[in-house]
Write a structure and sequence with these properties.
This is Major facilitator superfamily MFS_1. The protein is built from 15 helices and no strands. The protein is mainly α.
Length: about 425
């Protein structure tokens, strides 16, 4: 029977373990993610205007973003496999972060679509290269009982960059418009060059603060054998993630839905402004909710909390469909929808990687996280194409209704997965 002294020592050990999650590597990875997002999200908000002053049609933006997303998705699986094969991740992550400012510089020099496409692809290739490996480093820098909190903190920092980046891009563009010459492209180029600065700082921050707990190399590791040898429970898990993801439409469509719904009562300009503010609120909700959701997962398990998050995602799509069905054009209604969206994305982004670590062995963690990223990327590309096409060809009611059905099916499938939770 444990003595009181032993109980006291065990409690102290647990307390020390809980405190140790906010270590140098976790903080460094969080700061790096915030700076990286600040770099490319500043571009995201001004890129449509830059293409317009270059005289490029709107279709070019869709092609550029689609190709870039596809490159990022497939890069994730390959980069995860390479990290498991060679046993180290930090060099690849640094290379991935270095590609982001390089891509920004290419876009800043663009006179037409080829360099815009090249710059966006280079940036998104870097994003795909670093994402799974950075998550693996963070996971291995903390203990399983504190995994949710560490990943929640990281996602909060990541989202902070996504919130500040667009706001900074708009503010810098207004300033650059006064500081630049008569060429209408000059203000955009100036902002693009300035966005390189946080990208370079991201590389330096990761280099200085993050420690990579390298694993033993496995040069004989085969790509297809490794993918095929992932546990059956993990394959069921990514299957559920994929089904949910095919319904998980881009929230750019959610902004459009709010704009369309609010336009009759407000006018197009005011409706677009309100929809934009609602999206900022969604991002703030995600940033604020990520850490509490991670802490909740540490207490109750990542998989059950993720199931609740997925259910909120299905509810978001269902409420959007109902808003069109009953012509609900109140700001409060759309505020509720965007609030639910922020909460479910916080759970999704924080806990999908955490569940992966519970289902995949440590020496295959890079491959597992890369596979998760690829499945998510492909599913979301299909989703946005599906929902957008149905909206255009049939109706937004059918589009968001189908999204809700797919997300519900994914939630039910996820609830049937059994986790090998290691605590």
């Amino acid at each position: 029977m444990p003595t009181p002294m032993n109980d006291h020592n065990a409690t102290d050990a647990r307390d020390e373990q809980d405190r140790s999650w906010l270590n140098r590597t976790v903080v460094g990875a969080g700061l790096t993610s915030a700076l990286g997002d600040l770099c490319y999200e500043t571009t995201t908000v001004i890129l449509p205007g830059f293409l317009a002053v270059l005289g490029l049609p709107a279709a070019v933006l869709g092609i550029v973003e689609g190709v870039a997303d596809a490159v990022a998705s497939f890069t994730k699986m390959v980069s995860g496999y390479l990290s498991d094969k060679f046993g180290h991740r930090k060099a690849l992550v640094l290379l991935g972060y270095a590609f982001t400012p390089l891509g920004q510089a290419l876009i800043a020099m663009a006179l037409g679509w080829p360099l815009v496409l090249a710059g966006r692809v280079v940036s998104w290739f870097g994003k795909g290269l670093r994402g799974p490996l950075r998550d693996a480093i963070v996971v291995q820098a903390i203990t399983p009982p504190t995994r949710g909190r560490a990943l929640g903190f990281h996602r909060a920092m990541d989202t902070l960059g996504a919130v500040v980046g667009p706001l900074l891009g708009v503010a810098l563009l207004a300033w650059a418009g006064e500081a630049s010459g008569s060429n209408p492209a000059d203000p955009f180029r100036l902002v693009l060059w300035l966005s390189v600065v946080p990208g370079v700082l991201a590389v330096l921050t990761f280099l200085a603060l993050v420690h990579d707990p390298e694993s033993s190399p496995n040069p004989a590791l085969s790509f297809f054998t490794t993918i095929g040898g992932l546990p059956a429970s993990f394959k069921r898990y990514v299957g559920a993630v994929g089904v949910f993801g095919v319904g998980d439409f881009s929230h750019g469509l959610l902004i459009l839905a709010a704009t369309v719904s609010l336009t009759p009562s407000m006018g197009t300009v005011q409706a677009a402004q309100v929809a934009g503010l609602l999206y900022v609120g969604r991002n703030l909700t995600q940033a604020l909710a990520s850490y509490p959701i991670g802490a909740l997962a540490d207490r109750h398990g990542s998989l059950p909390v993720l199931v609740v998050g997925y259910a909120l995602g299905a509810l978001t799509a269902a409420l959007t469909a109902l808003a069109f069905l009953f012509h609900l054009d109140q700001v409060a209604v759309w505020g509720t929808i965007f609030l639910a969206a922020g909460l479910y994305v916080a759970a999704q982004d924080t806990l999908e990687s955490a569940v992966t670590t519970e289902l995949v062995a440590a020496d295959r963690l890079g491959t597992g996280l890369g596979t998760l990223g690829t499945v998510n990327g492909v599913a979301k590309f299909l989703s946005s194409a599906l929902v957008g096409t149905l909206w255009t060809v049939v109706s937004p009611l059918l589009a968001f209704g189908l999204a809700a059905a797919l997300m519900t099916l994914g939630t039910v499938s996820l609830a049937r997965v059994r986790s090998n939770r290691r605590v």
